[in-house]
Records
---
Amino acid sequence: MMNKVRDVIVIGAGIIGLATAYYLSRENKRVLVLEKEEIGAGASGACDDMILLQSKKPGILLEMALESLNMYKNLSDELETDLEFQNLGGMILIETEEQLSIMEEFVASQNKHGLDVEILDKETVIKKQPFVSRRVIASTYSSIDSQVNPFRVMQGFIKKGQELGMEIRKHLPVKRISMTKTGLWEVETDNGEKFSSKAVVNAAGAWAPEICKLVEMDIPIRPKRGQIAITEQIPPLGETNIWDAEYIVAKLNPFMAKRRKKILAELGIGLSFTRTHDGNYFIGGTREFVGYDKGTTIEGISNIVTQALRYFPILKNVSIIRTFGGLRPASLDGKPFLGEIEGLNGFFVAAGHEGDGIALAPVTGKLMAQLITGQKPFLSIEELAPTKSRGVVMRKN
Ligand SMILES: Cc1cc2nc3c(=O)[nH]c(=O)nc-3n(C[C@H](O)[C@H](O)[C@H](O)COP(=O)(O)OP(=O)(O)OC[C@H]3O[C@@H](n4cnc5c(N)ncnc54)[C@H](O)[C@@H]3O)c2cc1C
């Protein structure tokens, strides 16, 4: 059975697919979103909630994150949904002189590009974080790091998108994609239903390679698991959200990476300790390549919780109420693929946001809508195009 022709079919109802569908609906496009499970069944429903700016190197991702932050500030009003946007700021805790000198250099490069980050001395750190371990010698501080509730963001895109005519069909895994003689795309789901459209967007997150395979294409995106523990609701322990410098420093400096404790390096642990709107703390997280297994492990959870305890001994009697794992869609260069596949007219990819998809959702949606409607994107994103040089390969070639 063939349905009516849509302008665009978006595959995947995660935050990226829904943002893309919403901004396309604002451009008066008839959009259908196809989701194999539920809304947010992928990473967007199993993640932290940060719009984190100060971890980013100057470049396109920082530029996009700044744009997204500005968009988020007005998005609760625009979507008529309380996105639980909060601006608590963030601190990256520093324990050694070596970490301090690497972070000073990093902060200087960010300042040069206009990002408002500074280094705080121990006394000021303790004023802002009275319960922090006294082993901490300094921290970075950025007042602009913010957060939203990803579930609310997805709900908001759906609510407003549907008012504009956007359709969503759930529990329909896409199984086949082909180009018809009339130049339309035909997308078939596992129950045999067929949908046609002028354009298709692969927004299937960590599953984007499976969708690409349906059009004889390989894209280097891999699932990178993150495990998180959630505490009971407790009073605020400090003024801001928290990260540790050890993981960031290891990423910036290979020499420091080699000196990490083996288990922390193997599990890719970097502490994030962030307070939700309701007063629960999210303690994260691991970065592991374990295929599509999104379970949690005793080793993963115990190590992230131990890291949190090292920095905040006061947590020792706080209850953990839930743990979960999610699969970040990780590309080889850490950047998402945004754009049309050369030679596949009307087949677009918006996937590979790894640990930044929540932060980058609004800007991604807006840029994708501009690309798909043939407008000039408001940011220069040529380097994010899904090209051969980034490992995107057509099997027939
Ligand atoms: C532990 C953890 C912490 C994180 N913390 C943050 C953070 O603080 N800030 C931040 O910005 N980002 C964070 N991220 C990253 C963020 O969650 C992701 O970048 C983002 O959710 C990716 O969104 P997506 O829509 O591309 O993918 P997903 O949310 O995975 O959505 C893809 C969707 O496609 C569907 N799908 C797959 N195959 C098919 C098919 N055949 N047919 C139809 N549908 C299909 C899936 O069911 C899924 O719903 C974190 C991630 C994790 C795991």
---
Amino acid sequence: MQIDTANAAIDFVLSEARKSNVQYLDITFFGGEPLIESELLFLIADRFRNEKSLDQLLSFRLSTNGTLLTEHLMEQMMQREIYVSLSVDGPPDIHDLQRVNVAGKGSSQAVEKAIQVLLKANPCANVTCVLTPTSASRAYDCIDWLFNKGFRYFNLTLDYGADWTMSDMKKLESSYRELGIWYEQKISKNHRFYLSCFDERIRSRTMGKISNSEKCDLGFRQFSIAPDGGLYPCTQFVTTAGLPEFLIGHVKQGGFNHDCRKYVHNCSESPKPECKGCALTDRCASWCSCINFASTGSVTSASPVICHHERVLIPIVDEMANRLWRKRNRMFLHKHYNPSYPLIDFLEHIV
Ligand code: SF4
Ligand code: SF4
């Protein structure tokens, strides 16, 4: 992104925030690899922080593959309160198959250094681990390895764009069963951690259905800005140079095109017609347009991958949570029934 585009993007975001009277402004730097442009992103962060007229609470996040992360860069990000999330797909034998550099060489060595740098600066840092058909049978290995490295906040997700077969899904199912046992054992030993794919589904059972205000409001409450200043509804769509129907405006050409924005938003509405009558509608993530788009190339229908995934995962999570509930496991009850738990957990981790 050129500096004039970055400045136009900041002006645009500030003006939209004022117009919509939002209370929070969350800025996420993503790529590709955002640390390739660290000077530019610091400049952007500083301009937002120095903006006198900003009434909104401001937060920054950055997703990195860790290959360029140094102590010095980490320090600069901590000074600016940029919350860093690292992508690590598990132990070296898995990670190196899935994440290679331009020369085709696995990046695990660089990433192991990045893990140390990150966790030293922020023990509460988040790690994103992506399961593919190749690593489907290794969910347990991946999370246990990352746990032993010191992570406690795991975002475990699937590569929804991959070519999943029924046999891959079967492997995934048994690997989630192993992970369920891992979760139960860890929580029985009073470990505090957050495992997205399990905790989100326990939450949707204990706290009821996900409200509309928690769900995304595609292209409205969040949007993504491409390096050329193009506006897209979310991160997955930024690469869609050949699909102009997802281009909802441009920061240098009058901002949002309201018709395009509304059209994409309306196409993404959920529940989808094919989900009518499904008992999992209130708990299934089929409302995420990025997932649907990555898997089907469209936002109008639910991804078959997510459909199968939810039907596999939810019963495993529910069985495990029922066991912990019946045992009246104190950590489980504290974690899932005490509304102050997230704050207590965070404070205990940083003290
Ligand atoms: S489309 Fe999906 S990834 Fe994007 S904001 Fe909505 S829920 Fe999140
Ligand atoms: S499980 Fe399948 S049918 Fe049910 S809500 Fe999810 S995507 Fe729709």
